[in-house]
Amino acid sequence: MKPHKTTFLKGTIFIIGLTILSLCIFFLPNLARETAVTNPEYAYLKMPLLMGLYLTAIPFFLALYQALKILNYIKGKDAFTDLSVRSLGYIRNCAIAIIVLYIIGIVLLAVLNVLHPGLALVGLVIIFSSLVIAVFSAILQELLRRAIEMKSENELTV
Questions:
Q1: Between the chain's N and C termini, which has fewer beta carbons within 10 Å?
Q2: Which residues in 132-149 are b (16+ Cβ under 10 Å) and which e?
Q3: Going by C-beta distance under 8 Å and a sequence separation of 6 or more, which residues neighbour residue 137?
Q4: Which residue has the higher pLDDT, 20 or 42?
Q5: What does DSSP assign to residue 113?
Q6: d(CA 77, CA 150)
Q7: Averaged over 33-45, what is the pLDDT?
Q8: How confident is the model at residue 1 (pLDDT cuts 50, 70, 90)?
Q9: Which residue has the higher pLDDT, 1 or 19?
Q10: Are the beta carbons of 102 and 127 closer than 8 angstroms?
Q11: In 3D, which of 95, 87, 101 has the Cα closest to residue 129?
């Protein structure tokens, strides 16, 4: 891959990370505060929901970091190594962690009878997006593992 393509992808990852970080720092606390003022009967959910959302941000940022590592491997011509396979596995595990955390959150809100349909819809979109990422990273991980095996077999026959 050409260096300017990896630089563009790294820039995209940084923009995504900065956007989510700024949402976590500025938007979510204000939204939680306004919701607690507007709906005082749900004010007790302010901190648990914020903590749950911040908890799901951790695997998201870990997955972004692993994506940056993969781009560094590609730039350094080390794309077909076990390091890339391991990074894809971490990305898959982070996506699964996000899925599990959102399912737990949706179930808890449903049990407390405070699950708004809009929240459920947003949660389901995030769950299915993470599911797509987990499936594709698992597929890429297996394809990369097989490509590495074929590469090592070809190096042995020469």
A1: C
A2: ebbeebbebbeebbeebe
A3: 88, 89, 91, 92, 95
A4: 20
A5: T
A6: 17
A7: 90
A8: low
A9: 19
A10: yes
A11: 95
Q: Average pLDDT over the chain, rounded to whole?
A: 92
Tens of pLDDT, residue by residue over 73-84, are 988 888 888 899
Per-state percent for the chain, helix, strand, coil, to nearest 5: 90, 0, 10
Report pLDDT digits (tens) over 80-136.
888 999 999 999 999 999 999 999 999 999 999 999 898 899 999 999 999 999 999
Q: Could you identify the residue written with the tokens 């097989």? A: 146
77, two tokens: 């011509």
- Judged by phi (left if over 0) then psi (alpha if -120 to 50, else beta), residue 111 lies in alpha
Q: How many CB atoms lie within 10 A of CB 82?
A: 11
Sequence-distant (≥ 6) Cβ neighbours of residue 94 within 8 angstroms: 59, 60, 62, 63, 66
SS (H, E, C) 50-112: HHHHHHHHHHHHHHHHHHHHHHHHHHCCCCCCHHHHHHHHHHHHHHHHHHHHHHHHHHHHHHC
